[in-house]
Records
---
Amino acid sequence: MSDYLKEIISGTWSLFVGLGITIRYFFQPVVTVQYPHQTLPMTPRFRGHTELVPDPESGGPLCIVCGMCEKACPSNCITVRGEKREGVKGKVLTEYTLDFTRCSLCGLCVESCPVTPTKAITFSRDYNLAGVSKEAYIFDLKKRLEAENR
Amino acid sequence: MSALIQSQANETFVLNLGPQHPATHGVLRVKLTMDGEYIVEAEPVLGYIHRMHEKMGENRTWAQFLPNTGRMDYLHALAFNHGYVALVERAAGITVPERAEYLRVITTELNRVSSHLLWFGAFILDLGGFSPLLYAFDDREHILDLLESVTGSRLTYCYFRFGGVYNDIDDNFVPGARAFIKRLRERMPMYHNLVTKNIILMKRLQEVGPISAEMCRKYGATGPVCRGSGINFDVRKHEPYSIYPEMDFEVPVYEQGDSMARYMVRMDEIEQSLRIVEQALDKLPEGPVMAEKVPKILKPPKGDYYHAVETARGSFGVRAVSDGGNIPYRLKLRSPTFSNLSLFGEACRGMLLPDALALMGSLDLVIPEIDR
Amino acid sequence: MHVDPEILRLVAFLVGVIAFAALNAAYLVWLERKEAAHIQRRIGPKEVGPFGLLQPLVDGIKLMTKQLIVPAGVDPVLFKIAPILVMVPAIMSFVAIPFSDTLVARNLDLGLLVIFAFASVNVLGLLLGAWGSRNKYAVISAARVVSQNVAYEIPMLVTVVTLVMISGTMNLSEIVGLQMGGFWHWNILNLAASPLMPVAFLIFFVCMLAETNRAPFDMAEAESELVAGAFTEYSGMGFGVFFMGEYANIVIGASVATILFLGGWDCPFGLFPGVHWFLIKMYFLIFTVIWIRWTFPRTTFYGLLNLSWKILIPISFVNLILTSAMLKVF
């Protein structure tokens, strides 16, 4: 009998303790960020999709068309094309396509890039990625770079 | 049991729990044969999100498979990374710098805490309590911010590399991690007062869904499930890897085997993980975070290799057969939840539906890891 | 043309009661979302109108424009009539509730009985809807609802009988009239009648939660077990009417608790009694109901029956015997 009453009393008390905790939080300020109106600062290391790095002097891509990133990519989502041109050392980039529909954002491409001292590809900070067509996510990174230069 | 089923053959009905059911946390389907609200038989049906990770491993280089590991158990991605990376390092004979090992342990343990916090919230949600989920997410968000500042990603980190880690921590990480440990230690009593000591929760979990040590051995259950049944087994202690032997931590073991025991194991593990992180932060040595001589194209010598790590859900083992090429000949992944789920069918026989769901929640299922 | 003023009064009250019930149902959803959000340290609805106050309107439009799916194989009559069976008794009960000494639709001598009679019909609506929707989850839910209500009406009615014994009437206005003059006259603190009165209030409140299928006794909905229980197959306004019925039932439950235990429209300090005090007390109880929902996990079915048969019923009987003894002695 005393166990029975003890359980009722301790049980009821545990319920009131719980209610006390939630009501305390009720009067505390909210912790959420109202996303479209407010945004949080991005970490500098954010791994978004890749972006070509421009040459600080010419503004053209630093890419040397070695194809290392193409080979490193686990999902085969990178296509790099280049051509030999008269009077230019090495190859010139003609096409760099990132099929973002298949990309898993692992960052192996950036890691494999042999260009020094700054790598020829980097991560973008772009996280507002929403669209209505699949084609919009097959990025032509060379065009994006040119658009940025303009 | 079969005689019982036959005699009631026309009184039972089949209830499809899932593939879209709020309590199965993903696309698991459980075919329940029910007698009223009592479960006569339960049969988990798997494979709705099977992605052939093992076969994918045979089609790409050793390094290219790395991102896949985090996709299996997205809640404790770093431990899966760790298992695979450690296996390849063992196979190729790469020694990892000490600082990198420390960073691996720190981030893995933080990730374990975040996984347990999410489990805690989702489990209470299964039992019908809403607010603890949001409180747990509030804390978890701090871990994700910390890990994002190191790895650049919030869920599928892919932070470890063969021979080290992807990049070094920044200056804010150590104080940030210490502040988080302090914060979570202050919050833990709140969780216990709000949830653990709550009479409704105690009534729902105590002596509900008992799993015997015998059953754990039979089905190969590991992690908190077997530790809740009195089996003291933790890969970190019993097959030590990385720097765990240098860490001072306890393996929480509860004898009861009921859902409450599994709940308590995980809650205690959060505290133990915080202890490990704290010690590792204290001892964190200076130095490089990447081994110097890691070949660009990795070709581990011919042989058969195995490495196991302790994830939030149990022991994750990777077995690889190398034929000396740059692609694994065979990759076998032993994921903990697959074994933990397989005992569900036997354990929930004769239980009521809500109790069976409490049992299923206490197993901490992550479906992509079961289906791989 | 001469119209009997009594009929005009009735029509006015009917419109008023329906409007009150519908408005409450709509804005309690808003209150629930806001309160849940703040307990969880979020903001809740805030985009539609100031503080999201127009959210119920938008929700209503959304529910109304949605297709009413009648799945193949359901019993069409039961399936369609069930939401109404839940909604109508709840609105009917408002007729007997005195909001103040003058504001009452029908001052019935057996008002208390009317309310409990209508409260029982509500269960029937859920049962028929669940049975008619030909869904296994719904049928399990129906079985739970019925046995839950059978178990909880006993302690509730025993507690109410205690109160009727103290008051000597089943007229709700008179019950409140006996409690006028400050909070020490309220039944919850009527320790002279029985020292267990605060406990009786707790029992009544718990039974009210169970009667209205609110958490932690929301066995009928139990979304993590039975998907949506009795409402699984309902869509659009069919679901909406169920929902409004549930909230109207909560308002009724809180009103009855206010009348029986908290002195109705009486001011705690004996000053300015009136309808505002009734509403303050009622909404405080509703706030508590929502607060409880967002704090506790759900009980299991047998846990709920254990609570009822092993704890609530014995205690309420002890209270009944104690009260009758006290009434006889003093």
---
Amino acid sequence: MGSSSGTARAAARRPVAFWAVLLAVALAVSITVAVTIGPADIRFDEVWASIASHLGLGTSPLPLLRDGIVWELRLPRVLTAAAVGAGLAISGAVMQAITRNPLADPYLLGLSSGASLGAVSVLLLGAAVLLPLAAFVGSMLALGLTLLLASSLGTITPTRTVLAGLAVSALASAITSLVIFWTVTGDSYREILGWLLGSLAGARWPAVAIAIIALVIAGIPILLTGRLLDAFAFGDVTAASLGVNVSATRWGLLAAAALLTGGMVSVSGSIGFVGLILPHAVRFLVGPGHRALLPLSALVGAIFLVWADTAARTLFDPRELPVGIVTAIIGAPVFALLLARRRSST
Amino acid sequence: MSSAGRAPGHGGLTGSRIRVLAGDTLIIDGVDCTVPAGSLTALIGPNGAGKSTLLRALAAVTRPAAGSVVFDDVDLLAAPRRQRARLAAFVEQDASADTAMTVASVVGLGRLPHQDLWRDETPESRRIVAEALATVGMTDFASREFASLSGGERQRVMLARALAQEPRLLLLDEPTNHLDIRAQLSALLLLRELAAGGATVLAALHDLGLAATYADHVIVLREGKVAAAGPTASTLTPSLIRDIYGVHATVLENPVTRRPVIALSPLE
């Protein structure tokens, strides 16, 4: 596919349904295979049998301990990874469209760090029930602060917004570290790393529930607004002339993206770059139309994070990497590439 | 302004006592204006007169601080947004984006006010998009990426997007920008044709010559106020042009088209 010819690339795009089916199958396979990977050797069919037994279909062929590894440890962790990956990818795609900023990402604009700070604050106050809500409030405040800071620099440009996000993110991360350092006795560094770099090590079924509820509450409404997001490509005035309620749509969708980010961060800490790179990858496959871009980004984000987390927990077995290190190693070069391309195009 | 040409209760666009502020600055200062139904009207005036601001207010895409905008008995400022977008289309000046969207999907945005958000596009909407592309002569570009087009081609695609809205009121901000001379003439002929077909068309033009030759009516804006308005021939006089632009003007007749042309020269 040559980027030299727009015609060739547009014509070479396969239908959306093709990618949707392919990616859905790939996600199901990825989840199952990821569960088989780890110190205890578990076969593909054993995974399905265990899942079936817990859904009330037959009894598990696995001994109790091995069944527990599948059902209590690996499966919830892998499902959380899938849901968080989907949520962050949708969140990134929406923010890129609404802010007309190809560099937008919940991590780079400070939402994830804000959410971490919110989550850590209530966690240490002992109000774990409020975790997702506090993470949402934290990510909203961080987003507001980033946009305020970006606009105080003059016209809001993509790079200024990222710089503002960096400042907000640094501040929120520092306060998060401080709060943990102050209150946690014992291994506070591991705790700090988990929130700042993201980790799915502690993900059990409650985490799956929180991530999926956030995905349903905030993600599905976003998926239905694909056509509205297309209208934003030409700016606010053109969108308004097409009958779009620009400010309600903008703030509604940014709030939904913040809610999605908050929900995900409350179970995983701030995992970076998922929301940045995967929507761009999907645009390359199916073009920029958001009705296809949003659901496919969710699928690709889910697959990506399942494998990133599998790498994080197995590469240096028995030690674990925070998954955010894996996503940053892949994402930071892509970010640099996007920056370089912006420079050459303007 | 003169009340000549003011349309009766139905048809045409009527803006009344429109005021627009930018911060504390008054950009549009109590403008009354009329665009007769089925006409091509040019909005002219020096740079900074407030042409773009007035157009946006008339298109109801930005809400004026005061005043009303009525088209065909519909209050555009009060009408539901989607209904308004089915009635009135607006082509922004230099509305552009480096989007990888195809030309056809950009034009398809014009169907947004007509379709449900979650439904697939209908054969009817594909037909309307194809017609709009054919009207602006961009059929061969349908599957090209918008970002790969020249300025003039983009301008034509944005016009096609507006046509896909099937509007009865068309507002355009400098629609001849970026177009070469031949494309400028064909764009204005197209607007005349749309007006002849019953559409009400208002275009901000900085080129007095094009306005004189093609517009049925003109609205002359100066410092946020209407300085003159009415049928082109009787309004766009040498004394008005001298007054507004500070140049000497002679109105001639084009020997080929028999339409007025304006020859400009410096004072003295």
---
Amino acid sequence: MTATAPPLLELDALRKEFGGRPGSVAVDDVSLTVHEGETLALVGESGCGKTTLTRLLLRLLEPTSGTVRFDGTDLFALDAAALRGVRREMQVVLQDPYSSMNPRLRIVDIVAEPLVTHDPRARGRRGRAWTRQRVGELLEAVGLDGTILDRYPHEFSGGQRQRISIARAIGLEPRLVVLDEPTSALDVSVQARVLDLLAELQQRLGLTYVFVSHNLAVVRQVADRVAVMRRGALVEVGTAHQVFTAPAHPYTRQLLDAVPIPDPVKARRTRRAALAGDEETAQAGDGKTGDGKPGDGGTAPRPAHDGAR
Amino acid sequence: MTSTTAASPVLEIHDLRVDFRLAATTVHAVRGVSFSVAPGETLAVVGESGSGKSATALSALRLNPEPPCVYAGGHILLDGKDLLTRGERELGRIRGADLSMIFQDPMTSLDPLQRIGSQVAEVLRHHGGHSRAEARAAALSALDEVGIPDPERRYRQYPHELSGGLRQRVMIAAALVARPRVLIADEPTTALDVTVQRQILDLLVQLQQRHGMAVVLITHDLGVVAETADRVVVMHRGEAVETGDVHDVFARPEDPYTRRLLDATPRLETAG
């Protein structure tokens, strides 16, 4: 991830209008680069255009104008055969592990789908045996038992299904994985483990992630850089550290302020300060709490401990 | 959100046991849960999916479908009277008047074919004692109180014409128009964007303070708990594994599951 390396993904003045009349601009002149090996988080509320943007960068949608370059190649200039070649290097994991799998297919066929499409070894007389072997390895790589090949999606929990989706996404050893709200449908303890898995796979396989999320606390944990989107446009792009500690755009600050703080002492102090319209108190209060670990509340007696307000 | 004083509880749940008797098996969804909530107090029931938190919440209004649901034991006391022994007619008088509920998804809880104003007014009409005009006036002021701009115009609109946040405000108006003493809020902000969630949480706190309601907040989000609750019940596999003051539970969790839940919760202020 050196600064001089050319970006893996480069969006230039990308624009998408729907319906052909003004007022329906889903993506509004977005320019953005993503470097090899990094996690770029795309953050925004519902309707901001983040999903449309990911569909454009995978060329699942044609833009109104602008370009997407993947490893220097203009995606929208490619013919179908050339696009297929590039596509095997870009994979996607979707939010809902329940609707992103055909319930009538066995796990082996779900995970093998991209292999069968793109890898000649998965076809022919020996293809079936090779595929089963490869899918078993992939399932083990995502922390599942390699012997579940012949079972069906309904036999698995949400977290297990999301692992199956991830196995499917890494089967072709892609360079870029688009993760569209990959943990939004999961319980927090399951979410934590899936995030750990994604981090481990990224290191091991040198993956580049575009991580789409509305959950700023999750983004804080995974992102190297953050792009904040609102009404189709990027309002702020920066390192995670910059965006979270010194947000430049008022909308970013509004988003950060709205996130509930899982610490009753801090949450109440911040909220009181906000109600009093006294922003400085809130910020100073946050700064003073040091590392802010939840379990150590006992070491820092707070006057407002009775929770009265 | 007043501090927990010695006010006597309005809703008490004692050793509640809820089973779902299905064809092949019986699921013990709630296995002996007890808690109480006093006027002006917010009690959060926290847990992950399948923990039994929603089954517990729905039990308080006897809204679990019976069958397959069977109340296998315990008591649900509203002002000391057990709801589990009441008939459907009496429950119909209590729901919406003494005990009210709001749900996660306002789109599925509101009738798509009815104007929102009459859905709010209907609550009062159902409970009697209000003329059409009185119910309409009360519904208008309820819409106004929950922060719906231009209530006269909105009164005549249908749910699909409103944003998610406004729909949730309509649900709150309908839940509160008859001035219940207990509000049960089941994941009230889970389907909302974070900035809208903030507004709805602020609104709930404000309304609670104004009317002195007891609030039972069902949620999976420890951030929401930390912001709003006075006391917390942590549920896991149908049991209440920990109950306590919100500050104690967050600062010194006693149960290993509570600790795991707190550790798994992502935070904005992690060193990164």
---
Amino acid sequence: MTRRSAHADGGVALDDARERLWSAVHGGDEHGAVAVVLDAARSSADLEAVLLDLIAPVQAKVGVEWAANRLTVAQEHTATAIHERVIAALAHHPDHRTRVPAGPRVTVACVDGEWHALPARLLSEVLRLRGWNVDFLGAHVPTPHLIAHLHRTGPQAVALSSSIPTHLPTAHSAITACQATGVPVIAGGAAFGPDGRYARALGADAWAPHAREAATLLERGLSRRDPLAAHQAVDDLPHLADQEYTMVVRTTHQLVKGTLTELEDRFAPMRGYTERQRRHTAEDIAHIVEYLATALYVADDELFARFILWTADILTARRVPARSLDPALDLLAAQLKDFPRACHALAHAREALRSRTPAQKIPGPGKPA
Amino acid sequence: MDTSQQPPASPRSVGLGATWGSAPYPVVVADPSGGVVELNAAAAALFPGAVTGSWLTDVTPAWIADAHARVRTRPEGGEFRWPAHGAVGDRTFEAHPTCADDGDVMWWLVDDTDRRLAEDALKNERERTAFLAGASSALLSSLNVERCMEVTARLAAEHLADAAVIVAPPRGKNVPLTYCGPDGAVTHRTVQENIDLLPGLGDALRGFPPVPSRWIDPATVPAWAVPDGFAQPVGSAVVTPLPGHGVPAGALVLLRACDRAAFSEGEEIFARLFASRAGAAMSAARMYAEQAAITTTLMRELLPPQLHSVHGVEFAGKYRPSGQADRVGGDFYDVHPGADADQESLVVLGDVCGKGLEAAVLTGKIRNTVQALLPLADDHQRLLGLLNGALMNSHHARFATLALASVVRRGGNVRLRVTSAGHPAPLIVRADGQVEQAPTRGTLVGAFWDISSTTAHLELAPGETCLFFTDGITEARGGPLGDELFGAERLEAALTQCAGMPAEAVVEHVQMLAAQWVGRGGHDDMATVAVTAPHHAHLSAVNGHTRGRYTA
């Protein structure tokens, strides 16, 4: 347990390093960022702590600051790219380069459509430090590629990362496909819910809130499913039989169009919108429908309500009035009146919106942990 | 035979001479205390000691005497679970009671031996069929050879025997073995042993018919063929071939401990049925592994390269083929580094008409040709002319569009000579967020004998980027309403946000927006390459590929 104690001792030093890394990353200073991290690695000699207690919290702060509109899109992307390069520099640095991995093989990948690769990247590096033979497949891995990789390499387990909840249906098919090849899956990332409830709902073999826990669970070993027990994706989520999810996904574009047109009639300020503003509104409505579909998929009204509250905060932070959210939800409910679960989720979100106290803190479902 | 119908209670007065006396079913009448009152010929034959006056407990099996006692002590109107059932000698019977008013009980015995056997056989058969169906899907689910052997060993050890060993075809002297013991733990090991020491193994691996289990003396099973957890001496063994596609996929060795019954002939046949499924799955997995290895080798040259900083200029590329399962397609890019920091590096990004592997093969030819023409990269028009000639003369009836850029760093800035051959002109993101189109245009290659093009001369200040892209990005169809093109305008608007970003972040951002725009819909191949003048002088050193000067 030297790792744990080193982590505790290095705490104060890392506080300072975190400050310096944040200001380097914030200013787009890659050279400075690399220097801070290599310094910390040299003085603490605990690379895992450098990855998880220095880089990870600063990256989390990047997400928070972006949501609060204190970072531009460019700054956010730049910060993330710098972190990627810092991790690469750390991994390739002659002092820290790990031995040829002799340990068991594991695959780390992001769900198709998921572009936030950094949490998975950090886990890969942690596992490598702990002696695993890691195949890191990166962001946005199409499920067929993932499965072909499993057939070729036959790893002990797959660690699947997703930050955005709307990827849960895709994550579900990936989890089921991995398990069908006999490889157990550990899920991680903000998409799976703060307590991992969606990982459980989707039948993942394990869930971890952060990289350390994931590494511990993998070291303990995930048990494989009984190969004789036939398992299909729909077995986990019997409520999908009501077809509400399917119908909402299939009619997404009509729903967006319908809501947009009606909204212009009902919500006076929209008539003065520029083309660009209308386009943004259409994108916002498309997101709402996507989250609604996801909530129907995992049968959790809270998921949808959380997203609506988060959107309200994001809009407020960008000085866009959040008043148009409620009529949009109302119009969706009118179009989905034949779908009881969808109506329930929409009503729940409108209720949450009404009792919302503005200017809450920003971290929400949309950013990686 | 309908055994649910109870025979009608016969009046006591009928006596031995009555019809039931000659009934084909054994019938015994006993008084309340368990003494035999009467019995018919069939019963006398079944219970040799039974005569009038003997006790049921003495002349019939205990289960009949017990049933009799339970009938007598039945509470008024109480329910019983009849018929009683048990063995008499090597056959089994149901015993149905009918009670007379005076307390005597007439026991009707129905021989159900054959029905029981048929039921047992049916149950057995159902279990086996269910097992085979489950095993087939379990075996077919993985195309990984090692995993396939694990599943086979585990299923065989759990359902067919106490322990199982899979013997893969030997490679030279090495024999790869997969063990599964009674605890279900699977281990792999490679041994150098004489396989003929285990009777039948050599034959099985050569694909000869299996040796009957009874011919294998369990004492001759060598130690290497027994899993570690298998404590007892081997009681019986089955060696069965795993038939493959033409060549044997290996052999399956099943072991039972000596306190278990030896393998019956039926079990051996069943083991063969299982082995044929396992063998087919293993051959498929092996063939997949071979094909995948070939594909990987052939594909290596066609995959888009990993780009990184070269001579103080950032390069980043990202590629998303149209098919979800594809890795390559009709778009391609390359960065050919200059010999030293003063020499220009050549960026090529192009798009062959068509999709998938066929298009990818042509991209390979174009990439090779461009590489061969690198010494002529000073003159883009000449390079394009020679490439065009090569394509016109080849039997491929396809054409391509491409963009070339010769890139060199001068001081803090990056200079580019950019030429488009029928390709969308690259976009330049200025430090202030302005987006410009590179003023270059030209004819596509591989379609006409005469081609022409103009070259643009550009300069990037630190933080500025020149983005090359294929029309898969701008022609991506989707968006919130589902039917809009992503379009050049949206791409330019997105790029205004990209001022000052590192090259990787620019390509990532553009690819992400295009992918999100498309959503679940289909799309064409999408390729992007960013050339960026770095912000900081040291940037080139920190690319994860060089040791770098960053520790200084």
